[in-house]
Amino acid sequence: MEQRSGGPINAAVEVLGDRWSLLILSDVIFNDRRHFRALLTGSVEGIASNILADRLVRLVEAGILTRGTAARGQRARYSITEAGVQTLPILCALGNWGLDWRSGSDELRNRQQVIRDGGPALVEDLMDELRVRHLDALPKSADGPSLLERLGAASTAAASDRPTDP
Amino acid sequence: MEQRSGGPINAAVEVLGDRWSLLILSDVIFNDRRHFRALLTGSVEGIASNILADRLVRLVEAGILTRGTAARGQRARYSITEAGVQTLPILCALGNWGLDWRSGSDELRNRQQVIRDGGPALVEDLMDELRVRHLDALPKSADGPSLLERLGAASTAAASDRPTDP
């Protein structure tokens, strides 16, 4: 991927300054949608399949996602890389801003409130969980439901409320 | 501005998930470019004037920028709103990611390193300075050069190094 400008913000924006890329990444991370079909049908925004295909390729080329080799008859599964794990603070900062400055569904606002209340320490814990889920890292502790599952439960509740025709 | 989806991340991405909007915002905030012409000619990425005009309108409509009424013969000046001030953690998170996962000019990397090393407290201080600069807030302290000036000095050094033809 071409890098046009000098600054780290600009360099990040080259890759992440795209609505669909951010939404896909957020869906992979928070809703554990890992397959093309799940990302396509689960998209609240109703992403078109050609846009989804294009953005998945771009995210793989940018080193943020990897596309697992599919066995016969199986669908390829996407995982986030360490660079992908480390986009979490960006997504959380976006969510905190959205919580303050935009309206939206209560369920997902509750999820974001949990993230905000947890502060940087919770974001670090979430990143550790993502490393277990996507990068085969060993879990640091195994007691109780994971943070991602707790956040995911709120997200599932919200998804069932959403209109079928976006 | 239409709000299509439920979650705070998605709602934020509707407004901020756009490369040019993020670059313009970053230029207003870190380089204090406040006029159309300055944003146009200062853009490292070589933004087209119609794109710049479009994104400025969108940022104003989204409540992130305000466009000051220009006196006779004067150019309109843009300021960030409180919602604009609070995009700083997003820009800083993007910059931290770019610092780790992308290459770039040393000067602007140094600037980002100062921001990262300062952590959330420095981001809060920067937001206070932005409120003074853009929202006529009273300064909390008046001793020494401001953080934004210190960061701006690094940015100016980097700008003089950049190629004239992007």
Ordered list of secondary-structure elements with their pairings:
The structure is a homodimer of 166-residue chains.
Chain A: H1 8-16, H2 19-31, H3 36-42, H4 49-61, E1 65-67, E2 78-80, H5 82-85, H6 88-101, H7 106-135, H8 147-161
Antiparallel strand pairs in A: 1-2
Helix pairs in contact in A: 6-7, 7-8
CATH superfamily of chain A: Winged helix-like DNA-binding domain superfamily/Winged helix DNA-binding domain
How would you describe the oligomerization state of the chains in this entry? homodimer
Specify the CATH architecture of chain A.
Answer: Orthogonal Bundle
Q: Helix-strand pattern of chain A, N to C?
A: HHHHEEHHHH
Mean pLDDT score of chain A, rounded?
86
At the fold tier of CATH, the topology name of chain A is Arc Repressor Mutant, subunit A
DSSP strand count of chain A: 2
User: In percent, how much strand structure appears in the residues of chain A?
Assistant: under 5%
Which CATH class of chain A? Answer: Mainly Alpha
Report the biggest beta sheet of chain A as strand number plus sense, adding barrel if it closes.
2 strands, antiparallel
When the domains of chain A are counted, the total is 1
How far apart lie the N and C ends of chain A?
32 Å
User: Into which percent range does the helicity of residues of chain A fall?
Assistant: 55-70%
| Main sheet strand line-up of chain A | 1-2
